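Hi support team,

I submitted a single chain yesterday and got back a structure, but I'm not sure I'm reading the C-alpha cell output correctly. Could someone confirm the output below corresponds to the sequence I sent? I've pasted both exactly as they appear in my results page.

Thanks,
R.
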Amino acid sequence: MGETVRTFIAIEMPPEVRDYLEGCQELLRGTGGDVRWMRTDLIHLTLVFLGEVAVEELAALGSAVEQAVAGFEPVTLRAGGAGQFPPRGRPRVVWIGIDEPTGSLVRLQKAVADATAPFAEKVENRAYRPHLTLGRVRGGRDLHRLSAAVAEMADQQGPEFEADEIIVMQSTLSPQGPTYLPLSRIALGD
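Hi R., thanks for writing in. Yes, this is the structure output for that exact sequence:
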C-alpha cells in the first residue's frame, strides 16, 4: 500500500456547544483529577473511525459517504449528561453525551459505518454511543472526586443544535496533540 491518511467521519460542534464543553471542563478541572483535557475547538462527534486509508481511495470514500447520507435530513442534537469510560472503576475517558430521541443519529451513523466498512482498518462491532470526549485520564490523582463530579453532571442538559453536514476528516498525531483537516464536507438534506 502507498501513502495513507488516518481518517474518521464526524460532525463538528458549533460555537455554543464548544462554550458549553469548556464550562464542563472548568467544572471538572476543579476536582484536581490528572486529566489531559481536549482542546474544545478539536472536539467533534465521531461517527466512524476508519484508521489508515490509502490516499488513492479518498475520493471513493467521499463518494461512499455522500451516497450513504443522501436520504438524511439535518439532525437536531443536544449535548448533555456526563459520563466516563469505563462506567465503573478507574475512568480512562471523561465525556459529554449527545442526545437525539428520534433515532435519526443512530440510523445516520449506521448508514455511514456500513458504507465506509470497506475502507476501515477494523470494523467496530459494539453499539454506537454518541459522545464528545472532554479528556483522557492520565493518572490516579483525585479520581474519586473526578468520578463524583462526573456523576453529578449525568443529568445536566446542554445546548441543542442542528447537525447539517458530515465531514470526512484527516487526523495527524503529534506530541503537541492531534490536528484535524477536513477532506470533504457532505451536506445533509440537499
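A quick pointer for reading it: The radius of gyration is 17 Å. Let us know if anything else looks off.

Best,
Support desk
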